[in-house]
Amino acid sequence: MTTPGSVGVVETITARIFDDGFTTRSGTTLPVVDVAYETYGSLNAQRSNAIYICHALTGDAHAAGMHPGDDRPGWWDNIIGPGKAIDTNRWFVVCSNILGGCQGTTGPASINPGTGEPYGVDFPLLDMTDFVAVHRGLAAHLGIERFAAVIGGSLGGMQVLQWALDHPEDMGRAMIFAASSRLTAQNIAFSAVGRQAIMRDSGFNDGKFLSRGTAPRKGLSVARMLAHITYLSEEAFQEKFGRSAQRGELTPNFGIDFAVESYLEYQGERFLSRFDALSYLYLTRVMDYFDPFEDPASLNRLIAEPVRFLLVSFTSDWRFSTEHTRRIVRHLEGAGLPTSFREIRSTWGHDSFLLELPDYHATVRAYLERAAEEIA
Fold this sequence. Notes:
The chain is of the alpha/beta class. It has helices at residues 128-142, 155-166, 185-199, 209-212, 217-231, 234-240, 259-272, 277-289, 300-304, 322-334, 358-375; strands spanning 13-17, 22-23, 29-30, 33-40, 50-54, 80-81, 86-87, 92-96, 147-153, 171-177, 308-314, 339-344.
C-alpha cells in the first residue's frame, strides 16, 4: 500500500558499467562495476529534467516509494514524490547505491572475478572522486549528459561538492545539506572508534570473515550505536527519552535499564540485517580523507563553468555543525560563485536533513522551482 504523494511501487535495477574495468584513484583496477539504482518520474524529450540523488553513509538506492511486498518507504520518501519538494511530476530522479556499498553496487562483499571469493580487505581503498566517477558512469549508461541538479546530505553532500568541483559541466545546480568539506579531529575520532569496534571483534578475522563464515556482529552493532548518538542532538534525546525507565521503573543493574539504552540496542541490532562491516570501514575512511579545498586549484573548473549552489545546515547538528557549511560557503563565495545558504532551526541534530521539516522542504521546493523556470 502506498501513501499519498508516493512514487508507488518501485524496483531496484542493477547495471554493469565500465566494461573495460574501472581504475580507482589508488590505482587498482576493478574488472567490473555493478551499480544498483532506482528512478522516479519521467525523463523529458530534451533530457533536461534529471536530478541525481547522492546518499549518505548508510543509505542506498531506495530513496522513495515502496518495494514489492515491503511496507517500508525509501529513506527520503518524505521529500521525493508527486507534489513533494522534489516533485516527480516535474523531475526525473535518479538515486544509486555508492561504490563500496553493500546494497547492490560493487563493494568489499562482492565476488572478485579473479578469485571467486568476496573481495574482503583486498578491495581497494576509495576516494570521493571514485564515487563521482561511478555516478557519472551510470549517467552515461542512462544517456544523461547534464543534470538540472545534483543533491545530497551528509556524505551525499560531500559527493555533490566533489562532483561540482571536478565536473561542473554535468549540472546546473548543486544542493548540499548538512555536509562538510573537511572533517574535524572529533569527527575522525568518532569514526575511528567505530572502526576499531569492528576490527577488534573476534568475528572480524582480519577482514576475511565473509569467506570464513563469521561476522563482527558485536563490533558493527556498537559502531552503529556510537554513530547514532552523534546523529541526534541532546534536545532530541531528551525529548524522546529523558531519563525514562525501559520497564516502568529503574532497577539498578548493568543491563538495559533506561529507555535510551534500549533504543540504541535496537538501532545496533537492526543495522546488522542491512549493512556490511567492511563497507562501513571503507566508506567512513573516505570521509576522513576528504579535503578538496586543500588543492589551491580546486575551484578552477568551477569558476570557468559556474554552478549555482544551495547549502543548508541545521541549528542542532553538532556532527556537521553550521560552521562546516559556512566553510564551504566561504570558499564558494570567495570564488564569486552564485551561492545561497540557509540555516534551518531544528532540534533533531544531524538527522534533520532526512526529516520533513516545513522550512527545509519549502527551501528545497522554491530552489527547484527556479531551476524548472530556467529549463522552461
